[in-house]
């Protein structure tokens, strides 16, 4: 719905960029975890998610009047991803790589779910929920519940978190 609103109004007004960015980082992290673990579900879902989030970022950038801050945040994300990839492939031994990456992914997921709280201050100040997306909130709840159940089924504490 946020992407549709951006395209229809040709404006990114009242739409936060941080959730798009953190969700993309989250998908890329879990994609790496899925590849390392050999989990087809994690690979498929997060490859599609990363592709869609990258599309959202490109659309946001296209319609954003202030491109520099958006580009700087994207570059910061790329730096974090490259640094993380380097850390996990060069510095972490193969035996503990999955554990370290799982912990990293869990922390990033928590960050992703906390990012919409940046809007909470606006909601409280304005006494309006106009900047919050109800469909996104519901979808996030359903998706996180699904991943928790999947993690419990696999007995994988990182996916469960």
UniProtKB/TrEMBL annotation:
It is found in: Cell membrane; Golgi apparatus membrane. One of its GO terms (molecular function) is sugar transmembrane transporter activity. GO terms for cellular component: Golgi membrane; plasma membrane. Its main location: membrane. It comes from the Eukaryota. InterPro entries: SWEET, SWEET_rpt. The chain crosses the membrane at residues 43-63, 70-88, 100-120, 132-152. Keywords: Cell membrane, Golgi apparatus, Membrane, Repeat, Sugar transport, Transmembrane, Transmembrane helix, Transport. It is a multi-pass membrane protein. Belongs to the SWEET sugar transporter family. Mediates sugar transport across membranes. This is Sugar transporter SWEET1. It comes from Atrichornis clamosus. The gene is Slc50a1.
């Amino acid at each position: 719905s946020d992407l549709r609103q951006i395209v229809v109004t040709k404006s990114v007004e009242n739409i936060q960029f941080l959730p798009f960015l953190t969700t993309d980082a989250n998908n890329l992290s879990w994609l790496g975890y899925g590849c390392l673990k050999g989990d087809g579900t994690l690979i498929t879902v997060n490859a599609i998610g990363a592709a869609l989030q990258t599309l959202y970022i490109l659309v946001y950038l296209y319609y954003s009047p202030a491109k520099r801050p958006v580009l700087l945040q994207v570059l910061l994300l790329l730096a974090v991803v490259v640094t993380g990839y380097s850390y996990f492939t060069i510095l972490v031994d193969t035996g503990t790589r999955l554990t370290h990456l799982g912990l990293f992914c869990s922390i990033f997921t928590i960050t992703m779910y906390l990012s919409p709280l940046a809007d909470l201050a606006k909601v409280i100040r304005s006494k309006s929920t106009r900047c919050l997306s109800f469909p996104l909130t519901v979808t996030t709840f359903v998706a996180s519940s699904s991943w928790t159940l999947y993690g419990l089924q696999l007995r994988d504490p990182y996916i469960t978190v």
